[in-house]
Amino acid sequence: AGLLTMIGSAPYSVTKHGALAFAEWLSVTYRHRGLRVHAVCPEGVRTEMLDAAGSAGDLVLRPTAVEPAAVA
Q: Residue 45 in 3-state DSSP?
């Protein structure tokens, strides 16, 4: 949702876009101090929200979704 908008969920998409923009800002702002900032953007993460999406989640994300521990 940080790279592509999640249709039907503006608040979720906006916060994900904001988190990605903040990571980019941190990277640019503090690069001169040797600070490196990276944003991890998996295609999908197996969460309760993905489970609640039902068949739509199965079609779009489930085959490539990663476990939460992989991105924590």
A: strand
